[in-house]
Amino acid sequence: MSQIVKLVASKQPATHALIFLHGLGDSGHGWSFLGQHLQAMDPIAFQSTTFIFPTAPTIGITANGGHPMNAWFDLMEWDPEMRQFDNAGYLKTLNSVVKDYVKHAMDEGIPAENIILGGFSQGAAIALGSAISLPWKLGGFISLSGFISCHKELFVKLDKDLHNKDTPIFHGHGDADPVVAVSRGMGSLDWIIGTYGFQKAEFHTYKGLQHSADEQELRDVYQFVKKCWNL
Length: 231
Description:
alpha/beta
């Protein structure tokens, strides 16, 4: 497993876990504020929650002239519609890395239904794909400024049983995002709903927000997590 920033539950043993994957060029530390933010908003509700922020491996990024960056898969070009997709790298992360993180949390005694998997940008793309591919039913999925490759053949090699068809999915996206177009995010969520029949996927648009998160989106994430876990 790669380097991980972990905010350990203040009340042990931990009963819940939120695993969150960063975007291109970032690290687990870059999103660890999310755990701190949720804990500050409601210390009692999240006292038994462990927050896990992994760091992606360093690979050469095609869109960046081959310069190495932390990434869950390669970025082929700087295109807000993400028309080119690194299928091999994406599948590698889905098939091994993410499963390892979830399985590790389960091995530490946290039930699958008490685990939420989320991510930002590239990390969100992995979270959305995991909703299709994971062999366990989780408590929820969070996609912030995310996207997915809308080609069903990409997923035929993954787990054939859809375990998370009725698992809640939250997708938040700024309508001024210059990196991943809001239309790409909306189209991605529409595609997984239409193709796989997800029943509890919701899309939230944030006016004026670029490729980042703002206070309103974080409040909505907070409400989503509490609802998933009935906190």
